[in-house]
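Recall that a protein's primary structure is simply its ordered list of amino acids. Everything else, from secondary elements to tertiary packing, is in principle encoded there. The following example makes that idea concrete.
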Amino acid sequence: MENKRKVEIFSAGCGCCEDTIKLVKSIACPSCDITVLDMKKSEVAERAKNIGVRSVPSVVIDGKLAGCCAGRGPEEAMLRASGVGVPL
């Protein structure tokens, strides 16, 4: 069996997600096995959470969240520092 790099794109179907899907497909090589996963499905969302996906679109390569996708998503401390939860 031929070795393949497993590339998973976690998507919510939005325009930004579609752009990422197009980008990944445009740079992929024959060794890349690309799968687009729908975050609206509970089993996909649960798996994404376990991998560390915090926002979409996110790309996972061979089971590891790509560096460009890590550390994203809302964080309570940053939201509070920006005034969320603080009365005017």
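Helices lie at 15-27, 42-51, 76-81. The CA atoms of residues 6 and 62 lie 5 Å apart.
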